[in-house]
Structure prediction request, 804 residues.
Amino acid sequence: MSSEGSDVDFYYDDDDEMIVDDDEGSAISEDDMDGIDTYRDDYAAQPSSSKRKIYEVEFDTLPQEAVEGLIRKDVEYISSILGVETDAASLLLRHMNWNKEKLIERYMEDSAAQSAKAGIAPVEPPPAQIPPSSSRSSSSRSVKTSSAPKRVTRRTTAESALKAKALLTPEPSVEPESFLCPICCDDSQPKTLSLVCDHKFCADCWVHHLKNKIRVEGDYSIKCMASGCTLIATDSFVTSTLAEEPESVERYKELIVRSFVAANKALKFCPYPSCTYTVSCPNAATKSALTQMVPTVHCATESHKFCFGCPIESDHRPVICGVAKMWLKKCEDDSETANWIKSNTKECSKCQSTIEKNGGCNHMTCRKCKYEFCWVCMGPWSEHGTTWYSCNRFDEASGIEARDAQARSRASLERYLHYYNRWANHEQSAKLSADMYAKTEKKMEEMQITSNLSWIEVQFAKKAADELFKCRMTLKWTYAMAYYLQKDNEKEIFEANQSDLEQAVESLTELLESPIEAEDIPVLRQKMTDKTVYVQKRSEIMLEDTAKGFLENRWRWNVNVDGFEPATVLAD
Amino acid sequence: MAMESARMRRVKKEILDCRNDKSSNISIDMIDDNPYHLKGTFFGPEETAYEGGRYDVDIVVPESYPFQPVKMKFITKVYHPNISSASGAICLDILKDAWSPVLTLKSTLISLQSLLCSPEPNDPQDAEVAKHYMTSRESFNETARYWAQIYAGAPGKGGGDASAAGKEKEAAGLSESSRAIALAGLSEEHVNKFVDMGFGFSKVVETLSRLNYRGDNAKNITNERVVEKLLE
Prediction:
């Protein structure tokens, strides 16, 4: 891992979406990870490291409150460093996409400009005197930024008219009776609210505005309602205004948590619908780490399994993200075409052009090189003579030669299809055995009622089916990996392991599919339990050896893979 | 419930305010006595191709108004880069994310009026019109003016001839095909050149519009290219 330093630039050239690397990117991740490390001691939900296998990655599950705690910590840190209120610190951090270093640097350069951009202070000093209650925004005066709205020209007339109106209305001590809210046109609202810009609106309208932004638009940086005003509602303003709307406040907090998590490479939000957990996995936060492990993680809900490194599939062990991605891309591009070519064409034995025979006799003439040959034996037509149009010369030497040439040129296609078919087959089988198990389960339930077997006694098949599904997924991805592995001793060991696992899986499948009779159950149970344990063991060996191989840098690829040495022997 | 009455109160007030304000020359009326489905009307801004035209806008006030923007589209056909020449759909920031609850129906209509003054061809709603606008401004203005005359009732331009009678005479004098050519912003000479080659009239108009075969831009497009497109 330590030797990767010089390769960093190379990785970043990749268009991989996981690496969001702006100019200051490298600085934060380290610090953020520190924060999480210290934090983990207090909040670690699961001591997942206790019995960790080599192919498992260390990670923590954080409930939403825990991430809120992390955010609070950052906000307090910024607040103390920059000497601003926590509300302001929160807005500044959000504006800087939670990058503390960048924020401190920029804020030191020009605090007024940053405050204005973050929506803490008005862009233009308001004509009315700021009421003493908002004295904190002392930096707001004399602020000038260039962040003028893009299309001001179009609405200048309306806007300036409105602005004048909006700014004239608020006076620090407006009598409730005389206040006409410009939004709901109600003059009976007793309570008005405003941000430091002093654009007053009635409390009801503020509630509606915030609710609409949070619930409908999913926005957490909510601007003042006055047209053209760039001030953003602070956390305390939002929570106090929405005091009677706890659901909206919850959503608001979740939106902020999501933005924080998205900005932090060591954190990922659980991708399952309406799940609010965050997974922290600092070990898989860098791109170089992803060349050495497959970070399969899950949130507090065990079944919410996902890959921390990529969105390809929830668990693509044993193959690393980069190779899995490459394989899927190849499958998308090639499979259908390759299948068609394989079943419908042959190559000219001279120039290797792919030829489709779409009718006519076996006397073929290559369009490209004008070579004349027989479609059946692939030998030169000249040896057929001109009189007969059916080929009975299968064993002739020249025909064999031509077929050999063809075979060689097809080998790579065949090779790909070999791996692809097995890959696809395991996926298919996994689905089928899940269906099949559903039927078995039903049968077991019936048996439980008709015979004197207890519930626990008919559970053995469930365990077998679960294990099968898992192993089929592993096997599936071993084929993707094998396709790209360079042919050497390591690959042979890999394939031996793969073959052992495959045999074990197939025989367990057979067992699971065999008819079940009540009287056979004790025997079947014993057999199936034994087999399940064996499959488990084989799968363990497969995953462990591959993971170890990555750590020991044992695997050699037949293509260039990011983060590995260039391939020496390329695929045929 | 409170929300509903707030929306009603506000829309009523806006309609009333607009009626009392004679200076802006903008009117808002209900369609079918429905206070949430309105028709706004304003005149094309002076010294633009739209001058003198009367523009109707369909307004739908959504349930969460004024916290969500109103939905507006032109009823009157307009030749403008940010307005769909077919549907009247409008591309304007304040009708989307730049909306603010303090904006009103009237102020939004005023914004539409000023949109007519200052098109934003880099963010077009109607790509063909925008291309026309970008490549040959003079020809664009001519077409926009013609649309204003035909659809928005703007008086015909051209010195003292700008009387209603002159306009009628002009409109009556134009044949069906000349009218179609003018509406597409093309020249009769160009269209006839390809019609004479034996291509159908509507096909020629459609193809030349798509290629933006207008003004100076026509010089950049070879006859071969046009014929190729016509044969597609």
Notes: Residues 158-169 of chain B have pLDDT under 50 and may be disordered. The radius of gyration of chain B is 20 Å. DSSP finds nine helices and four strands in chain B.
